[in-house]
Amino acid sequence: MRTILHIDFNSYFATVEQQANPRLRGKPIGVTGGDRMERTVLGAASIEAKRFGVKTGMRPWEAIRLCPQIIFVQGDSDKYLEVTKKFLNILKSYTPFVEVFSIDECFLELVKGNPECIAKEIKQRIRSEIGEWISCSIGISYNKLMAKLAGSLQKPDGLIVIENQEKAIQVLDKIELDEICGIGLRIQSRLNNMGIFNFTTLRKVPLEILLVSFKSYGQTLYNMARGIDENPIVPFFEKVEVKSIGHRHTLNHDTNDQQEIKQIMLKLTELIARRLRAKKLVGKTVSFWYRDGVKLTHPRGVLGSHHTFSGGGMQVTIAYTNDGLEIFHAAWRIFQTIWSGDKIRMVGVSISNLRPLVPQTLSLLPETIRQETILKVLDKVNNKFGEFTLQRATLLKSSQIKRIPNPFLSDRRFKL
DNA sequence: TCTGGGGTCCTAGGACCC
DNA sequence: TCTGGGGTCCTAGGACCC
């Protein structure tokens, strides 16, 4: 039997902000995503704010209604990434089998030692080596699914063990369907329509029925109800770096001004290209999508995913590239093809089908060399002096994006 | 006052190749 | 006469996660 630990940081962005700025400690704070309050949501709420009912994903005005004294801090993903690197280093001292699941979550597979003792020690070391305000919940079990569930049962600063399948089934019988990772609102409501409202009932449904309704995912649901999950830990040293790189931006106001939209898209594609080059990758499938100001006809929660919006999207495949302008041209072509002409609220661009950039000795054409030199200089300057210090002349007019997190630079300025 | 921004995986049909 | 079978690539879109 395997020993899997799931480590999940509590109110991560909020506690990192509190650790960094003592004036925020012990106070209800909300970390915002964007810079316009009316058009953003909370990326995290501190424990103090959560006591008022404030939750991740809420709009700021909702948070104010619940907790008038809440303090908003603008999120800074570079700062959080720094802390993530620190805690990963601590975890790697216990086992090489560390899987990074997100910026504030990971799985560990232990091969020796007492898991509970190690979990306690990890918590202690995080407090002493990273900061007393940073706490995490740890779930221990025999697979990833149950370890993650265990970690979610006690928050903050929890430590729960689900020893075996028998215990797992006892736990499953007490929780809601959507409390397990992999069942969202859509699957839950489809199960409900079949008369299934909990795991006890789900366990009684024959596999064949689930396969008919959910295709291959039926097997996963069948296993979930029994606490079965054979998915292996994918350690950092085996993980393929990324599958896609993208950015999207919600505009400060809805617009149908093509020039304005163009400026935003140029910035997004330039950022994407710089990240590609930093990782020494090229990509060939460009996706563009937008959301217009038209209200969704479905209530929130029914169409929960960001892929379901009023607007449009399309992908095209081009020659492998890491040049922002080429990505832009592809995205712009799509935009021209699919745009309805309605006012736009958000635009997004991403590139997928990535592969490593291999030195191409065969294509040493003068123009290629020139382009590559330009891009190298551009990256060098921007990495050293900050985002958009040096940019293509076409970008100069834009003032729309005030701040997009730079994936390489640490920004430790406090916003208070 | 009405939903940010970063991702992953899967299915399915059509085009095209040998 | 108009067809097998194996495979890849491309695009659309659904569902999920933090």
Total count of strands: 12
- Written as H for each helix and E for each strand, in order along the chain, the element string is EHEEHHEHEEHEHEHHHHHEHEEHEH
Using only C-alpha atoms, the radius of gyration works out to 23 Å
The coarse silhouette is globular
- What portion of residues belong to β-strands? 15-25%
Q: Which bin fits the share of residues in helices?
A: 25-40%
Task: Quickly count the helices.
Answer: 14
What does this structure look like?
The chain is an alpha+beta fold and 416 residues long. The chain has helices at 12-20, 47-50, 60-66, 77-92, 115-129, 144-153, 165-172, 185-193, 199-202, 207-214, 217-224, 258-278, 324-338, 366-385, and strands at 3-9, 29-32, 42-45, 71-74, 98-102, 105-110, 136-141, 159-161, 244-255, 281-292, 311-321, 344-356. The strands form three sheets. The protein has a five-stranded mixed beta sheet with strand order 5-6-1-7-8. It has a four-stranded antiparallel beta sheet with strand order 9-12-10-11, covered by helices on one side. Strand 7, helix 6 (144-153) and strand 8 form a beta-alpha-beta unit.
